[in-house]
Design a protein that fits this description.
alpha/beta, Rossmann fold, 6-stranded parallel beta sheet, 5-stranded parallel beta sheet, 13 helices, about 35% helix
Length: about 350
């Protein structure tokens, strides 16, 4: 527990996690834990403007503060003034970056907590092949450890994501126009990722889509604007069963789409964590990164496909080219494996 001088209930708490999609969703157990410990308190969340939709309906939050990422020092100064004006009792920094540390340090809060990411152990593993991980703690558990001494306890549950009713109505209407009714079975594919080495080959996604199309499923291809090329290739390769929602669905609409799906096949990307939060069965393909970093699907029905290779992990967040020039971590995983894993999940569910 926290020191005796700090035992009075916290009335105003700020959580800082600026991005991205997955990181913010992985922070939702902390929101829930703090809300349970301080039910009369006000909890706010500071994040980038683009991700506010992930948190707007979270029942544990009183408000979400938008951080303007493109306004440089001026945006940082304006955000800091706003944070100071709120007079928070505690600031929880789940970002651990220069910006988040500045915001926490100058917030005026009497209590500050910062997550311990374990960057040194990660460096030893990736750069020197020295494994110093006694356990591979999931990121949400690391986040919860940061607030453990405030009395916030892990409730053993997963991630949270509320589906916006307006987004649900919009998605249902769009699916209806495409001839995909309420009784239609849908498999979602998320072939994009921030770095190329985190992308399972597009042809494998397409093959998987075709297989499920032949089994009577409709295929929804999901992604953001940066994934347009790979989503187009997968949609074309999956054939008449597939419809692309890439860059045409908002975050809220993507959540509503996932809610309609029986299954997601995905790379290590934000959509994967959205599916985890919605408890959608997921087949996730991991290449350059491993369980050590804590980003596997969290407390949800999921199967991770990966290869135990001596060159893994080869980077912290993926790269644009395979350092070994063979890309075996992804290339050797077949669509048959994905379909088999998916069928087992669907039978279990």
């Amino acid at each position: 527990m926290f020191p005796q001088s700090e035992t009075r209930p916290l009335e105003r708490i700020l959580i800082i996690r600026l991005g991205a999609i997955g990181d913010i969703l992985l922070a939702t157990p902390v929101i829930r834990a703090l809300a349970a410990e301080f039910p009369e308190g006000r909890i706010d969340f500071l994040t980038k403007e683009a991700y506010i939709g992930l948190l707007k309906a979270n029942p544990g939050l009183a408000g979400v503060i938008a951080f303007p990422p493109d306004r440089g020092f001026r945006g940082l100064a304006e955000t800091l003034r706003l944070v100071r004006s709120r007079r928070y009792d505690a600031v929880v920094d789940l970002q651990d970056s220069i910006r988040s540390r500045l915001l926490a340090f100058f917030s005026g809060s009497r209590i500050r907590r910062t997550v311990r990411i374990g960057r040194f152990r990660r460096f030893l593993l990736v750069r020197l092949r020295m494994d110093r991980y006694r356990e591979a703690a999931p990121v949400p558990v690391k986040y919860l450890n940061a607030v453990e001494d405030l009395g916030a306890a892990d409730d053993g549950k997963g991630l949270d994501l509320a589906v916006d009713p307006a987004a649900r109505e919009s998605v249902n209407s769009r699916l209806g126009r495409l001839g995909i009714g309420n009784r239609s079975k849908i498999v979602a594919l998320a072939p994009g990722a921030g770095r190329k080495t985190k992308r399972w080959p597009a042809e494998r996604f397409a093959e998987t889509g075709r297989r499920f199309g032949e089994l009577g499923f409709r295929i929804a291809v999901l992604g953001g604007s940066r994934d347009a090329d790979v989503c187009s290739a997968v949609t074309a390769g999956a054939g008449r069963f597939a419809v692309s929602f890439c860059a045409s669905a908002s975050l809220a609409e993507t959540a509503a789409l996932l809610e309609r799906c029986s299954l997601l096949v995905t790379n290590d990307t934000g959509v994967m964590h959205m599916a985890s939060a919605l408890r959608i069965p997921t087949v996730a393909v991991f290449g350059p990164t491993t369980r050590h970093f804590g980003f596997f699907p969290f407390r949800s029905p999921a199967t991770v496909l990966e290869r135990n290779l001596p060159c893994r992990p080869c980077s912290f967040h993926g790269t644009d080219r395979c350092p070994e020039a063979h890309f075996n971590c992804m290339r050797t995983i077949s669509s048959d494996e994905a379909v088999s894993a998916a069928e087992k999940l669907l039978k279990t569910e």
